[in-house]
């Protein structure tokens, strides 16, 4: 049987595995930080209307520059981010994964490197590899906060071209203070200069605020966002960034022509019309997230502070401890995430009923262990 390694694939892809959160058919799925609430009926109707209009014109290529969509995204950011941005500051693509890919194609690539502070979002490293960008795994403290001095040193020593800072961080859940981001930005500029990408995929769930205002006077800073989490639209595949207009011009050097389909643009515009309703679900999820933190601690787990729509909990001793716990929770019908952080698992905040099912499962697990 011919396998991947029998093909003339690029050397850096040999022996590697694809990104693969299991998609299993179980009653309670709390493993990919999705929003558990289906879109409200009024929004579904509006999507149908907008897509019907778009469908009439599918013989034509979509608006290549997604002007209407970027304008509406800019309005959303301005309204919620305490910083005014316009069309020229915003770029959109198929999920923030594609935004990150375009940034790495533009500012990384062969002979260049990117750094992230791990554990963090694994796709930063995987997309780096996919774009031929060398990946550097930067340090983090035992409690998963970023060690500022050690990170500054790592940037000074490695002189990366791209620096990823995920806040709130995935899979750990904790936010990065603005002062740390500023210090790392300064370190990155002194070392190279390089682009600093602040991945705010979960920012709407934070107790704190977006770092958008840091864009002022910092042309090498990028804030990346997504409609997959707060807008409850993971299936839509719509991510975006805010940055200096020169960054928006630069990523257009690598984007595929017409990368954002007319159907996706129409759907995203419909969702943006319903922002207020969707953000109410975010408030419910924040309450549920805080409840998960409290209850998990009451059960006796260690829990990392969370500013996201998920919670990291542990600890599970032994070489395979977290994986065995993951399996036992799955045996009780609840799918959580084993991100490969030794001793820890991650659970996404679901509906109150889903969270109750999860808490029952881990309560039983704890009893079994003690
Ligand atoms: N950034 C972070 C930190 C994430 O956790 C995710 C999704 N899990 C993404 C980006 C990508 O999201 P999407 O491509 O759905 O916008």
From TrEMBL:
Residues 28-361 form the Aminotransferase class I/classII large domain. Signal peptide: none annotated. Residues 1-22 are annotated as: Disordered. PANTHER family: HISTIDINOL-PHOSPHATE AMINOTRANSFERASE, HISTIDINOL-PHOSPHATE AMINOTRANSFERASE-RELATED. Its EC number is 2.6.1.9. Its cofactor is pyridoxal 5'-phosphate. Belongs to the class-II pyridoxal-phosphate-dependent aminotransferase family. Histidinol-phosphate aminotransferase subfamily. It is an enzyme of class 2 (transferase). This is Histidinol-phosphate aminotransferase. The modification N6-(pyridoxal phosphate)lysine is found at residue 229.
């Amino acid at each position: 049987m011919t396998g991947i390694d029998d093909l003339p694939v690029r050397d850096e892809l040999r022996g590697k595995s694809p990104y693969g959160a299991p998609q299993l058919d179980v009653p309670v799925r709390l493993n990919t930080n999705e929003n558990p609430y289906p879109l409200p009926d009024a929004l579904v109707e509006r999507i149908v209307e907008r897509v019907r209009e778009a469908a009439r014109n599918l013989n034509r290529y979509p608006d290549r520059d997604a002007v209407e969509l970027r304008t509406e995204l800019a309005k959303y950011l301005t309204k919620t981010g305490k910083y005014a941005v316009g069309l020229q500051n915003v770029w959109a693509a198929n999920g923030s994964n594609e935004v990150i890919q375009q940034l790495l194609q533009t500012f990384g690539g062969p002979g260049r490197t990117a750094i992230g502070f791990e554990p963090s979002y694994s796709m930063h490293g995987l997309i780096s590899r996919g774009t031929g960008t060398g990946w550097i795994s930067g340090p983090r403290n035992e409690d998963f906060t970023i060690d500022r001095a050690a990170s500054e040193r790592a940037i000074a020593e490695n002189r990366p071209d791209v620096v990823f800072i995920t806040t709130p961080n995935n899979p750990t859940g904790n936010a990065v203070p603005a002062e740390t981001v500023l210090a790392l930005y300064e370190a990155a500029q002194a070392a190279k200069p390089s682009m600093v990408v602040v991945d705010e995929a979960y920012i709407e769930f934070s107790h704190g605020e977006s770092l958008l205002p840091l864009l002022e006077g910092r042309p090498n800073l990028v804030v990346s966002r997504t409609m997959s989490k707060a807008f409850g639209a993971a299936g839509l595949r719509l991510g975006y960034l805010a940055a200096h207009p020169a960054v928006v011009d630069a990523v257009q050097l690598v984007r595929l022509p017409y990368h954002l389909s007319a159907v996706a643009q129409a759907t995203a515009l419909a969702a943006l019309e319903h922002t207020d309703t969707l953000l109410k679900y975010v408030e419910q999820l924040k309450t549920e997230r805080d409840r998960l933190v409290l209850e998990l601690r009451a059960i006796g787990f260690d829990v990392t502070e969370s500013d996201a729509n998920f919670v990291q909990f542990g600890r599970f001793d032994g070489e395979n401890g977290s994986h065995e716990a993951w399996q036992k929770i799955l045996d009780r019908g609840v799918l959580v995430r084993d991100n490969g952080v030794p001793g820890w698992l991650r659970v996404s905040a679901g509906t109150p009923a889903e969270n109750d099912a999860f808490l029952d499962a881990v309560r039983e697990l704890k009893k079994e262990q003690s």
